[in-house]
Amino acid sequence: MEKSEIDPELDPCSAQFNPEKALKVKHIPTTKNYKIFDNVQMLQAAAKRINNEIDTKLLTEGIFVRSGKKVEENPDTVVRKFLPHQGLVEKKKSARHTKNLLVRLEAGYEGPLGTLKKLMDDHVKAKIYVRKEHGVRGSVTGYIEAFDKHWNMAVTEVEETWTRRKLKFSQNDVIFENSISSEVARQKLRRMGIKIPEIKEIKSLNRKYVEIKRHVPQLLIRGEQIVLVVRLEES
């Protein structure tokens, strides 16, 4: 009987050999091409040599060979299962270029900055007092559209109010020879495409000071100029 005709489960040399089934069969088919060994030691040596050949074949068909070169991966190869703390370290995405003003505003703030965030979310007008070299210069009223941790603010629909000395009581008494009038300066700025907000109202407070008001569509206020922020309740 040829070896190809033998049931693989009854062939001792087959990887599908089933010993339980072989014990229940009265006559196990054999091949004529078997080798007779003189003793058990020779049989063990031959079996060990065959096992080494099988291991070499599996390594060659697997992921790596003994030479260290990578070959085609076998999907049936056993893969080690790592525990969560034994696996590869996942690379975290750098947050360097993902942090910006809008992301920080969505995350929210606590304390005084949290109150500013509430003013911005509720879209309520706020009165912002600004400073000068020595004291308070005036105030700015409008809607806070954005701000940062340094209190720099972007405000829209701005009504700016500030005080200054009257011209005859001005502290700047120096008159330059090449000085030009304010109207000539405005004309030059218009030709350059720069539009200065018009002054709405000038009110005399006392003998030396006047109060000036003007409307500005939008304004950026530096945090170092802010003295106080007050919520204005809508009437």
From TrEMBL:
Residue stretches making up the Sm domain: 118-231
InterPro entries xrefs: Lsm11, Lsm11_M, LSM_dom_sf, Sm_dom_euk/arc
GO cellular component: U7 snRNP
GO BP, one annotated term: mRNA 3'-end processing by stem-loop binding and cleavage
Sequence intervals crossing the membrane: none
Alphabetized SUPFAM superfamilies for the sequence: Sm-like ribonucleoproteins (SSF50182)
Protein name: CSON000198 protein
Molecular function as annotated in GO: U7 snRNA binding
Pfam family membership, one: LSM
